[in-house]
Every structure is written in C-alpha cells, then in structure tokens.
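User: structure tokens for this one?
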Amino acid sequence: MIVSHQLLSLLAMVGTGILAAAVIDMIRTAGGGTRAGTAIELMAWPLLGLAAFSVLFAVRSGEWRLYDLLAQLLGVLLYESSLHRPLRFAGRLLTALVIRPILFLLDLVWRTVAFIVGIPLKLILTLIRFLLRPFRRPARAVRRKAGTLSRKVRRKFAGLPLKKRSA
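Assistant:
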C-alpha cells in the first residue's frame, strides 16, 4: 500500500472519530440523561461502528489495522479539545436562524387553521346547547331519580353477603 493511500485511510478514520464524537455529544445534549436518551445512545453506538466500517470498507476494502483505532481515538480527542465549542456554537446558530423560525411558522399555521376551524365548531356547539336547553330540567330530574333509586337499592342489599362461586 502506498503512503498517500495510508494517509487517506488515516484521515478517514480521524474523520469517523470526529463524527462519532459529534453524534454522541449531540445525543447526550438532546437526551439530557433521560432513559430515552440512554436508549438512543445505545442504538447509536452500533450504527456509528457500522458507519466507521463502511468508510474503512470504501477506503481500504475493510482491512483493519491498529492505527485505525488510534486514528479514531485521535479524532475523538480532536473533537473534544478543539472542535467541541465551534460545533456547539454552529448548532445553536442553526437552531436560532433556521429551526426556530420554521417551528414558529408551523405553529402560526396550526393556530390559524385551528382558529378557522374552531369558529364553525363553536357556533354549532352553541346552537346545540340552545336547542337542548328545554331538556335540561327533565334530564336533571331523571338523574336525581336514578341516584335516589340507586341509593335505595344499595341500602336494601347492603347487609346481604355475596354468594361464593363454586369451583
């Protein structure tokens, strides 16, 4: 294997180490130490291993050497030492400039649709309440009678033991 090819594979493994550290940092930041975050992290590790192997497979037909592990560790350390803060800043900037305005627009559309749909629904419910108004007193009387009857039945059968079922 020529030296330029080895350098390319070394840089690819450093890149996978940086990518793995960034993904795990993102998952830990978003998960916040919850059970769901832990479960997502446990699912992410094998996927990151498969991604690193696919890069290794594309670069060097899947031949693994000891310096590949060292290169990945170098990538993780490089991320932690110098790329951690700029990438976090870029993430906050992306959130503030792209994601939040999109979420704001989606919320605005949702509220507008809910308001437009809600007006006819409120009118229909008001009309139904108005039409059912004459039936309120009879319904209340029936509920009272049912409650009284229920109390009488419970009092009457309160002292009786329940039958045991035979097996």
